[in-house]
Write a structure and sequence with these properties.
Blueprint: E1 4-6, E2 17-22, E3 25-30, H1 36-51, H2 69-78, H3 86-93, H4 103-113, H5 119-136, H6 160-173, H7 175-187, H8 191-195, E4 202-203, E5 208-211, E6 220-223, H9 226-233, H10 249-265
Antiparallel strand pairs: 1-2, 2-3, 4-5, 5-6
Amino acid sequence: MPLKLVRPRAGKSPNWTIRGTYLHIYVDKSCGTHQRSVARAILKDLKGRIERGEYPPHGPEAQPNAPTFLTAAVTYLEAGRRPRYVARLIRHFGETPLTEIDQAAIDKAAVALHPAATPATRNCGVYTPVAAILHHAGVDIKLRRPKGAKGRVVTDYLTPADAFAIISAAETVDPELALLLKFLLYTGVRLGEALALSWDTVSLEERSARILRSKNEDPRELLLRDDLCEALRGHAKANGRVFRFHQGGMAQGAARARQARRLRSAGAGTPEER
């Protein structure tokens, strides 16, 4: 039987299994993950190791408990962490021991996986997720990011007149959208933090709201203005999220385009037009 992925069986382990024969090497081992995309990456890496004569392992590498990038990545994913970019990293590093993943190895991976990309793309697709996986595995590593990793920094701002013109125009399109914009303007929170806000973390009587999870993973308390509290009071519900909107890909882009057209028709141009 050729080497292939075997689906998890009901009532058994939720993880995929690699089973079969490749180049006269028989394999029957768990992938250690329930995510098919990651399991496919593990299968591809295993075939490459068999072709290079690296599997089954011999000598010190045969120790089953030796920490590798593969085991660290699977543990990272099973902890519910972000899966983006991880499958490609598994295909590149495979079962490389964590002790061998240093600055030079990560620099090499960034060039191999993103040969024509900008430093910002390499930082996002390699340096950041690899650092997160290593830190989750208890490896203390301080990486030097590529020059230009933050991309092109652009500082922009709205004048008070611009901001209130946009909010006023949004009011004619959707009052809740206007309230969201006002909340962002008055509190300075990130869009994702505002959209994740729920009524059980808001106290209009105490003029406070609590962000349970910020960018640095720490909660923080917001002090709300009186006029913002009044606006929220008219919008308040017994429970659930404060704002009904969602972020997301193409839908978000289409929504922004629709909102821009509506705002333009309502008399508030885009920043480029003002």
